[in-house]
Amino acid sequence: MVRRGVQRLMTARRVATLPEMPLASGRRADLICLSQKGEFSIVEIKTSIEDFRVDRKWPDYRQHCDRLYFATHPGVPGDIFPLTCGLIVSDGYGAEILRDAPEEKMAAATRKALMLRFARLSADRLLQAEWAANPLMIGPRVTAALPDG
Fold first, then answer.
1. Cα–Cα dist 106/14, whole Å
2. What total of structural domains would you count in the chain?
């Protein structure tokens, strides 16, 4: 629910989003966003106070983005989230940025690697969705090359 609202907000802002993206560090971003300027934001989704308190991995995301946000729903108090990160509140139908995230520019080499990872994963997911929508597109030779095939 939270992710869907954030994705709708980002789409309205002409920002591309990709959920559950594995990062070079081995972590997985809940939602990574790519702006028209080529800037990356990571949105870490937290659905409860306990969800935030037990998570100690979120500082690692800073090395993989220009801005780091937390997103939650109206039932979670916003004051539990650090002021050094942005804050988004979502109800599933939409979202609002309550606090913008400070910019911390990534190194050029990190940006290039992340851009390539984002592009390849997006293309792979689009192809999988296309094949799922039209199973006749998958021939016997292609099926063997699929990750689960």
1. 21
2. 1
